[in-house]
Amino acid sequence: MKIIGKSIFIITMSIMISFLTADLFAHEMTEEEKEIEEICEKNPSDCKERGRFSSYQPNYAIWQFTEDDDNSLEAHYSLRYVFSNPDCMTNYNADEDDPDKADAETTLKCLKSRGIRSEYFVTYTGNFDFYAYTRSSDPVVNRISNPAFHYRKYWVDKFIMGIASLRYIDAAVEHRSNGQVIDADDIVEDSSSVNDGRYKTQVEFENGNYKYFDSISRSANYITIEGRFQIGKHYNEDSSRCKSSKKCFDLWLKLKPYYFSNDSNVTWGSVKNMGMEITDYDRVRLILSNKFPIGISFVPEIEIGGDWMIGDELFDTDSFNLNLVLSIDGGIFGLNTNIPLYMRYHKGPMNTLSNYTKNQDSFGIGLRFR
Question: CB-based contacts of 124: which residues, under 8 Å, 6+ apart?
């Protein structure tokens, strides 16, 4: 019994000593670590760990109803890869033996300068139509292939103009094509045909063969300059309030000031051989978006937006899209996440790259993800 009693005493004392020494030698936070903690409590988004891969533009899939075309499933996907440091916290939270682990001083400097950081990244955006059960598309019709290299400079809270604030300026070199193979300048070469010597596109246009124009090749290389702004009544008081206010919205202004090359000749229809180019339809793009709660239990949040595209011919060739996203409570269907129901309406030209001069109305409904 004495041995058991001594053992219990030794174990008890060991536990007490361990607690005492743990308190005695506990790591005391440095001033830098305390400041990091304060910044992360105030701006949690600045302290998120972000991978180098992420979405760029919104990704969506919609069932589309288009004027003068068959119904189709349209898929839009957009990704980016960041070469520069994507966040401040990944290296800070790394294991002690990780050679990339960052100290508190380096991390604090990163967090304090995050609003004026620079980024280098590449993006790839694609778009295709799948004419499921409506017509052959072998198996899809590629609409857009758009790789780009970007330099982006952030100026968060640095340039405030009344109720507007510049968020960043982005400069990029981009290529955009549709991966098709038919040349718009192809001529009918058949001496026995009444169409000999005419443009094939004009012949197919007169025959009403709209499917033919899916295969017209288009490509261009150009520079873009884009600015993003946040505009809202509460901005100067507290920018975080804009994220949940109907009176705040995001605005993007994107300019294509220079085209290196531009394969967009039009040899059919009312504008054939008039020297029209895609720059006459696509020079400036203005995008507005606003996301806010609406207080309905099964639709807690909605996002409303639109974009307006203007070319060198100004209002004679402009086009626009209207967008609506209803964030539906997934709990209704036993899901742990909301369902982003997406609706889009397009009016005007630029509905497709291959036949960009054609005015078309279209409506689509489906799902959209960031």
Answer: 56, 78, 79, 80, 145, 146, 147, 148
| 67 and 153 housed in the same domain | yes
For 75-106, give one letter per residue: b (16+ CB within 10 A) or e.
Answer: bbbbebebeeebbbbbbbeeeeeeeeebebee
Whether residues 5 and 120 fall in one domain: no
**Does residue 6 sit in helix, strand or coil?**
helix
Count of structural domains, the chain: 2
Any idea which residue has 């960009």 for tokens?
A: 356
- Domain span at residue 9? 1-42
Do residues 145 and 24 both lie within one domain?
Answer: no
What residue spans of 63-143 are helical by DSSP H?
104-112
With respect to residue 47, please indicate whether it lies within any of the assigned structural domains.
no
Residues 89-136 pLDDT 10s: 888 887 777 777 778 888 888 888 888 899 999 999 999 999 988 887
Distance CA 302, CA 38 (A): 31
AA identity, residue 178: N
For residues 170 and 231, state if they share a domain: yes
pLDDT of 7 strictly over 70: no
Q: Give the pLDDT of residue 237.
A: 47
| Separation CA 334–CA 112 (nearest Å) | 41
Instruction: Please tell me the distance from the alpha carbon of residue 144 to that of residue 351, in angstroms, as a whole number.
Output: 11
The CA distance from 275 to 112, in Å, is 52
Size (the chain), residues: 370
Alpha-carbon distance 93 to 98, whole Å? 10
Residue 241 is predicted with a pLDDT of 57
Please tell me whether residues 19 and 59 are part of one structural domain. no
Residue 222 lies in a domain: yes
Q: Are residues 91 and 17 in the same domain?
A: no
Q: What is the mean pLDDT of residues 223-228?
A: 96
Residues 108 and 201 in one domain: yes
Q: Which residues contact 160 (CB under 8 A, 6 or more apart)?
A: 235, 236
